Amino acid sequence: MRDANRAAKEIGVSIIGGHTGYTSGLSRPLVAVTALGSASGRKLVRTSGAQIGDHVLVTKSIALEGTAILAQDFRDIALKLGLRESDIEKAHHLIGEVSVVPEALALAKLGATAIHDVTRGGLLETLLEIAHLSGVGIEVDDSRLPTRPVVARFAQAFQFDPLRMISSGTLAATVPPDRVKDVKNVLTRIGVLLSDVGQVTDGVGVRITRKEESIHYRQIRCEEDELARMWNLYPRNE
């Protein structure tokens, strides 16, 4: 509860309800949240606002949260797979980056047409949802995707796809070409890494280009998150 109180103070919100309890069979705390917000006269930036010609921008790194969770909950397995204590420590610290409030507010003020945090299903699922709800296609150059070295090491050891790994702390946004420079300048000033990874196009779904290979994804499958696959591969007995 101290963690919840601290987080609420950081972003200036109030906790207005809830309770604590015990349920047989659950060995860890389970938190359920209903979030209510007021636009207060401000224009809402929806997932459905992407426009053809917009640039696709991604903040920080992909697979942040999933890598941090692996470091926390699968530490023994990570060591068996060849990762070092220093890798686990670096990955564990990624959990401190899961807030996207400062960059989301900045993007909204600077004219982003669509914003979506990267949660279950990873960046691929996030972009599929933006494309579907906006009635557009999205093309992404895999070589431009921001991936922290420690994330890459965990992905190689655990054999997961960073594009499909849950990544709270990462934002995907579509921004008109004439606003990209301003967005980069502002996010640089607040210390948030920003990568220009692709473009909104006419069409459907998301096309990912890797070297000379291009894969076109059309179907939303939010249940296919890589972290869930890790739990199936390496079940925990705690």
Descriptors for this entry?
238 residues; alpha+beta; Phosphoribosyl-aminoimidazole Synthetase, Chain A, domain 2; 7-stranded mixed β-sheet; 36% helix
Notes on the structure:
It is a single chain. By secondary structure, the chain is α+β, with helices and mostly antiparallel strands. The protein has one domain: PurM-like C-terminal domain (Phosphoribosyl-aminoimidazole Synthetase, Chain A, domain 2). It contains nine helices and seven strands; from the N terminus they run H-E-H-H-H-H-E-H-E-H-E-H-E-E-E-H. The protein has helices at 2-11, 64-73, 75-80, 85-93, 101-109, 122-134, 149-158, 180-189, 226-233; strands at 55-59, 114-117, 137-141, 171-175, 194-201, 206-210, 213-217. It has a seven-stranded mixed beta sheet with strand order 2-4-1-5-3-6-7, with helices on both faces.
Element layout with pairings:
Layout: H1 2-11, E1 55-59, H2 64-73, H3 75-80, H4 85-93, H5 101-109, E2 114-117, H6 122-134, E3 137-141, H7 149-158, E4 171-175, H8 180-189, E5 194-201, E6 206-210, E7 213-217, H9 226-233
Parallel strand pairs: 3-6
Antiparallel strand pairs: 1-4, 1-5, 2-4, 3-5, 6-7
Helix pairs in contact: 2-4, 4-7
